[in-house]
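Final report, results section. Input specification for complex C-07:
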Amino acid sequence: MRPMLRLLPLALALASFGCEASNAVLDVQMGLPANPLGEPMFVRVLVARGDFPVPENTWVPEPHELTTGPSTYQFSIEDPDLACDPGTAGDCDLLVEVRFCLDRECASLRTGTPEIRATDPQATIRYRIERPLFVGQRTQWEPVISAVPACVDDATTCAMTMPPPDGLSGCVVDSSVGAGGPPTWFCDILHCNEIVCADDPGGAGGQCEGGRTGPHLCDR
Amino acid sequence: MPLEWIGEPGDNGRQMTRALISLTLAAGLLAASARGSAQSSDANRDAARDAFLRGQQAADSGRWSDALRAFEQAYLMSGVPTALFNAGMALRALGRHKEARDTFDRLIESHPDSPATEQARPLRDEEAARVAVLELAGLDPSAEYELRLDGRRLDVPAEPVTEVEVDPGQHGLSAEREGYETFTWEGRLDDGARERIEIVMAELERRQQPGETSSVAKSPILWIAVAVVVIGGAIGLGVWLAKDSGVEPAYDNVFRF
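Structure output:
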């Protein structure tokens, strides 16, 4: 037993050398509105890079059920080795698509039929986040969604979408989806404004050196 | 009624767009169908035509999800087979081959005499050939499992061999059973591949009851084995830490690239 006990610290000491973190993590705490319907309603999130529309299979594993009051949806996004080039503008931007559905799996949204929309809002919020992941760093993002996107007119045709409320910074009606699509908002998130570096949190002035102008505090 | 095609299939980059049945003619088709249908109102016909237009425009700019939604809407409003055909093409472009095959099947079944159906038949066979199959083997029919494919719950009966159709590409499977270690599998499936996954789940060690003693615990062989495992584990841990040490997500619900 004694040789074994001698070897243990050696192995652990070896383990302590060269431990350089190579992954990147974004922890998301998403404030969500009360359920506006009289039946269960769920939120599911898709994550991707590139351009919208996002692939249909890149889900955050567990959905979230809206409650009678505001609630919080917590999940993390991890990139094991940052498979993008921070030197190329936009390459490391993150697309986060939030979907509001009546079914837990958000399967109905994929069919996109007007009959379903009459009862299911199939609403979507598309976030494009400026480079929120940094190698070896943990970042935090706490968006607040104060309302579910809705159609201004008839829910079946949905020619116009209700504009986002003031609480949603940088968000507009997503015209790229067009009439007949689901009510959709598009939100452009600048990392100096909303992405907090866990090891070096900024303040109200911003999350970058110099507030909202210099390199991100996680990029130093 | 003849069908007009824009471009030739095989043009790769824009092949899918060009393979869609053309807008001008299809709009005529929509109108003709609406005239022939007692259920279609003028407003419905116009809305169907608009949806078809949107689908065509979305397809032209490569927004296939939006195109799919619009074509499905157009079909729902008009019942015109051309719209259903184009929905199938959009699914094909999105790599959702299983759904594309099913859509073409639906077209063939619902509109057997349509010229669009003639165009759909070979495409249907192509899509069917691309659908991959996972054979899940080793499940105990008498046990309860929670199976997840790509993070989504899989509602299939536990049978000695259970077949699940999937689109080609990267997939992840997990199986959970009470009292057993979680089984996970990840792999990439090529077009039309058939992969057999043997689900073997190790039983978790039963906790020793109070008062229960084991003579095995006194065996020196056991302790030698433990020593080997501990040293090996420690070295393995060291290697693993050196390789994968990194920042930890704050929440259990993690999306990983």
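The longest strand of chain B covers residues 169-176. The CA atoms of residues 37 and 78 of chain B lie 9 Å apart. This concludes the modelling results for the funded period.
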